Amino acid sequence: xxxxxxxxxxxxxxxxxxxxxxxxxxxxxxxxxxxxxxxxxxxxxxxxxxxxxxxxxxxxxxxxxxxxxxx
Length: 71
Fold this sequence. Notes:
The chain is mainly beta.
């Protein structure tokens, strides 16, 4: 959980999903203290922020971890 918090606290929003199914959410790219790249999807309907998922992005699907590759 510390890795996810670190990535969110120092990361940047790379995709925004304002019309997501249940609540608005976004995808954040960041790194943990060890420098590992992470994507964290969070809902941000105030006053709560909820972590939906977190994963290490694949370079086969992302350019610079911030932009999806076109298929």
